[in-house]
Amino acid sequence: MKIIITDTYEEMSRAAADVIAECVAEKPDCVLGLATGSTPIGLYACLVEDNAAGKISFKDVQTFNLDEYRGLDPKHHQSYRYFMQDNLFDHVDIAPENTHVPNGFNPDAEAACGEYEAAIEASGGLDLQLLGLGHNGHIGFNEPADHFPVTTNCVQLTESTINANSRLFDSVDEVPREAYTMGIGTIMKAKKILVVANGEGKAEIVKKAFFGLVVPQVPASVLQLHPDVTVIVDAAAGALL
Ligand code: F6R
Questions:
Q1: Which of 13, 27, 105, 213 is the most buried (most CB within 10 A)?
Q2: In angstroms, what is the span from residue 137 Cα to ligand 1's centroid?
Q3: What does the pLDDT look like over 90-109, one tens digit per residue?
Q4: Residue bearing the CA closest to ligand 1, atom 1
């Protein structure tokens, strides 16, 4: 595991964007696993800049996002599809049909998750998976549990997640109760993993996930067992290392 601590969020974002750009330069038709959340917004902005400057092209790249709310219209401003269009896809030369987000609009959870897992396999597998880190160590929507979920699956959101997310919706009733997420096994099959985290609120979990015991109660701790992981954190998130 390679750990890089940068002084600022901007430097973290630039360094992480460079890891992704290097992957695309080496393999122009690579398969990227992407994440939503506040952490990667800066690195997506760097990729948009690089694309505009002609330094990187997504022309032949395929992407698969980690997760999506179940039952939310992809056009809803809180859907992860909307987030990706807004922060990356609408601003780079990627082919729309090459961008994949779990189909939250398919109410048949088994079919939606099975099809997603199969599509990742059919693409040849993830060359690089980008991950943010939840305060409780979750990756994707894989929350602390007594086992590591293997494949793409449907999860029930916890009351605390529903309440936390309600600030982004008009009312708590609008917050989806379930989500589709890649499993820990799906993530671990990626050839390379890139984790980003910033801010002092992530310092404890960064230490616990990468230097603590490997247990499903801290889902990100499983990454210690992956052969090619790069963790890039800003000084605040790396303060306890
Ligand atoms: C996003 C995702 C989540 C986030 C995590 C951190 O697709 O799957 O696991 O990466 O919740 O979120 P932020 O970056 O908002 O702190």
A1: 13
A2: 10
A3: 999 999 999 999 999 999 99
A4: 36
